[in-house]
Amino acid sequence: MTIPSFPIVTETDAQLPLYLTSIGHWEAQERTKRPVGFPDFQWLQALSGTGELTVGDQRYVVKPGQGFFLFPNEAHAYRALLEPWDVHWISFNGNLMPSLLKQAGIERSGVFTTTAPDSLITHMKSIYAMSLTGHPFMGMECSKLLYAFLLDLMRNVWTSSPSAADNYMKLHPVTQYIEAHYDRTITIDEMAQCIGISSQHLCHLFKITLKMRPMEYVNRERINKSKEWMFREPGMKMQEIAPLVGFETASYFSYVFKKVEGMSPEQFKRSHGR
């Protein structure tokens, strides 16, 4: 058993986008029942044994390699079905949580399969070690580590969905095609032909996977390449860069650049001292 850590959350810590409230490890997780829930978000990662999570009327079996996410103030209970049930757990809060959960597609408490559980455990051990240091800025340091953990958790949980992983892999030839041909006209039909689907289906895949339309992605690729030209050849004018990155006119290039970056190409150059 690892002695749980309950770091002091100062008023300053509570203003951080993310902050740690507790963390620990039970080699033999005991039965836990919380009729009024728990005040913070929690993630519990199972290493061995088998457990059962109950949230409302829903019952879930938790197997090794899986974890379960608990929302604050929601009645729940969990217990071992096959002992010893080895579980690492971490509790946290912060105003960044709603947007992170939305991006990860986690809408409710439940059990999730993770693609790289060892990576998550490594994060949790690092956070635990930091929480015990007495570092003068321990809350901030834990917040940084917690953010990395949650990003990794989001990737683990999100890509463990077969449809999400499949969509990313299916779009990979298209994004490679865009990178290779950004300097000329690219049509949606061309991109769709890369993977043998209709243009409508391609638009749907981009929307649900990357949250943008295909031509938005193309233009972002072009804008990124234009930035490379600005740094590589600071003396080049915008009307010279525009055709090199697939824009027919400098005016349209400037329009798209400002729409994507919130500033004109000239302002971008000046802001970077070019």
TrEMBL record:
Molecular function GO labels: DNA-binding transcription factor activity; sequence-specific DNA binding
InterPro entries linked to this entry: AraC-bd, Homeodomain-like_sf, HTH-like, HTH_AraC, RmlC-like_jellyroll, Tscrpt_reg_AraC-type_HTH
A Pfam family the protein falls into: AraC_binding
Keywords assigned: DNA-binding, Transcription, Transcription regulation
UniProt cross-references to SMART domains, sorted A to Z: HTH_ARAC (SM00342)
Gene3D superfamilies: Homeodomain-like, Jelly Rolls
Domain HTH araC/xylS-type: 172-271
Coiled-coil zones: none
Recorded superkingdom: Bacteria
Protein name: AraC family transcriptional regulator
Organism per entry: Cohnella herbarum
